[in-house]
Amino acid sequence: MEFIEFKNIFKVYKNGISALADVNLSIARGEFVFIIGQSGSGKSTLTKLLYREEKPTKGTVNVGGINVGKLKNGNVYKLRRKIGVVFQDFKLLPKLNVYENIAYPLESYGMKSSEIREKVLKALERVGLKDKIRSYPDQLSGGEQQRVCIARAIVNEPKLIICDEPTGDLDPKMSKEIMKVIENINKELGSTIIMATHDKEIVNRMKKRVVCLHNGVVVSDKKKGSYIQNENV
User: Fold this and answer.
1) For site-directed labelling of 19, which of 9, 30, 60, 196 has its Cα 20 to 30 A away?
2) pLDDT on residue 168
């Protein structure tokens, strides 16, 4: 059984807009998958279904054997503990320093402070930011803030990491560095990486699996794909 399965997924929002139409997609444990497509093609909706930010109108989303759409609201937190999410706009808490931002989700789980410290330091080491442990978000560059966001996403060593346009606000040099960090995490932790992106240079250079969406439909799925094969996006 695949680690992630989208079966006959339809998503229609209350305003009548159809975001996804009959999407079928299987992703193996440890895979690195780019989701590409124009704005409005359904990329973000697809990723949000994985951590129950959205529920499908029709169809089934399975993550590690869990039927995500059928989860009771009170149990969604258990799913999210196993998933790391990296956002384009970082979503760091401005009044907390780097250590506190990364420790925050673990504290909400009721984890012991000694265990939290060990996990936070390990996550910071993985993203190369141990020297910024007491800095605040407004003291960091955009690339450094994104590294903090990645450290927060991996602090609990999740089996699945979802990245929604993680390089969207970064320059090409910083984007390349961030992608190297994410690729190393994929290799070291064996985490499945699903990344929605518009960054053609990164997709073409990395030669990972590429799934292309157009108007909510999967129009191509290449094992070692590129934007070159999907010029309409």
Assistant:
1) 30
2) 82
Helices 98-108 and 113-127 meet at what angle, rounded to 10?
Answer: 130
Region label for 204, one of left (φ > 0), alpha (ψ between -120 and 50) or beta (otherwise): alpha
Neighbours of 148 (CB within 10 A): 24
Strand partners, 23: 9
Q: Name residues whose C-beta falls within 8 Å of residue 97's C-beta, 6 or more positions apart in sequence.
A: 133, 134, 135, 136
Instruction: Give the pLDDT confidence of 79-112 residue by residue, as tens digits.
Output: 888 899 998 788 899 999 999 999 998 998 888 9
User: How far is the CA of 185 from the CAs of 3, 136, 159, 231, in angstroms?
Assistant: 18, 24, 11, 29
Q: Residue 185's closest CA among 122, 130, 137? A: 122
Q: What is the DSSP letter of 140?
A: S
Which tens digits make up the pLDDT trace of 115-167? 999 999 999 999 999 999 999 999 999 889 989 999 999 999 999 999 998 88
Q: Match 């799934």 to its residue by tokens.
A: 211
φ and ψ at residue 228, rounded to 5 degrees:
-60, -35
Q: Give this prediction's pTM.
A: 0.91
CA 12 to CA 61: how far, in whole Å?
A: 15
**Residue-level pLDDT at 90:** 80
pLDDT tens-digit map of 165-218: 888 878 888 888 889 989 999 998 899 999 999 888 999 999 999 999 999 999
Write the DSSP assignment of 144-187 as a string of letters. Answer: HHHHHHHHHHHTT--SEEEEESTTTTS-HHHHHHHHHHHHHHHH
